[in-house]
Amino acid sequence: MIDEDDRRPPAPARPRGTTRATAARYLLTPAQLEESLAMTAPPSVRNAVVAGLQATLAVVAALACFHYSPWPQLVGFGALGALASLFGRYASRARRRRMVFLSAFLLVAATFVTSVAAHAGASPTMMVLVLALVAGASTVAVSSWSLGGPGAVIIVFAAGAALGGAGSWEAVFAHAAATAAGGALAWIVCVLTDRLRHEEPATGAFPSDPPRPMRHRLIAAGRIAVGAAVAALVAHAAGWQHPSWAAIGATAVMQGGHLHITMSRALQRMAGTVAGACLVGAILAQSPSFWVVVGLIAVFQFVTEIIIGYNYALGQITVTPMALLMTHLAAPAMAGNMALERVFDTIVGAAAGIVLAVLFSSLDDRAYLARHRGAAARG
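Below the sequence we write its predicted structure tokens.
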């Protein structure tokens, strides 16, 4: 008599080289380091230049407007809202307006949520968890609305700016209103200058990836939320003043669609941040005036949008001083060890991101990495 188990087809064999240990070894090879150093041309240099100009105009306009307004203490939140101009650089004009509007909405929502939590008296640990939830929720929103790069990392950056707390409900709404005003400036700048960009051709030379199934989006968001929480909790336990920077690092690294991209992002982010931190440390040591800082932010913002498409590490060299100078304007008293802490936070965030990416990876993720590494070896 034949046992029913004998009639079942044998289970498919696991593809070779798809264990997590093997994936980790693939990510630590010299070939992976070479990939992270590779230079690639952006889809459109003209659009990169125009995007840099748009972001620079929006951020400088926000900084200047709030500096001369009755609310100069909100200058940092206005500049954060202006970062909505970074989204949709390869989209058609109609789609770009929608994308900038939705990105501004997410920036305002992130600022509002964290400000409310801080005003409600949430403990530092709870604030870190709120930040992680913002990272996960914004990941789902960015994917669902096809907003593309720079992705959820900018939303987490805005949320982190509000971790310092709001003393009253008026301050909570002021933070959100200032961010919304910056977003409105970004939208206006993009509408007025988008004619300078190349329109997305009808054939879709710069196509947007269609949203993945909701289940996949939620899994990706969960991974990023856990990564942001772990990185920020480590930074908080170490006594660092800006645990949100570690969460930003983890979010940026784990946004990569494949493991080899995640590892390249981690290496590039760490290297670029170290160089950028040295640069901004030298700048802040000179005690620059407000307008010198604004001018430097404008230069770094413009240069970033041009070079980051060639290599992510190059962009981090200029993103780091820009972000720290914006933080300096919002909270000058906290400028002391910002540069050094940024390096530590970035290393923690990047390390947590890559470790958790491997631990949470699916069999398909690891099989893709094995095929990619095999193709690179043959090529």
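Residues 22-38+45-203+213-378 form one domain.
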